[in-house]
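Chain A, query sequence.
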Amino acid sequence: MRYASLLPLALLMSCAATEQPTSDKPATSTAISSGMKVDRAFDVPALLGMNADQIAKPLTGQSIRPDHDRTPRELPTGGTEALYTYWRDTTALVVSYDPSTLHVNSYFIKTKHSLTPDYTDLLKLANISKYDKRWNIEPIASVSHPQLYTGVKLVPKQ
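Chain A, predicted structure.
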């Protein structure tokens, strides 16, 4: 009871010690900072015209780990999609396809831990130029930091 008067002070001190200052600047990975050499992780143009099962052959093996999610999802447009995700180190290639026809709808290239100010670095990981006319290229910005990109959606033109 004689230390009861120190309890509010102790509580205040413990809260102050655990607070972390927030930063407005997100942590960007140096692996995909603009200006650095980016090595190709996937050869997405070589997959053009293949269905979801056919692309598994060139993508599996070597240092690529597949992660299949065959659970169909309803799309807002009324169709269904399922996903295949292929990992090479910390880079993922997510393949969206129609489970009934295996037709590939789109590809999404992203990295596990980084944001980048220049989406062309992500395109280099997919071996695609931003001028390639075979693709509709949709850079996806971070929700919390719209000046940085989390990935790029690649839709083959019909």
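The helical segments are 7-18, 56-59, 120-125. Residues 6-31 have pLDDT under 50 and may be disordered.
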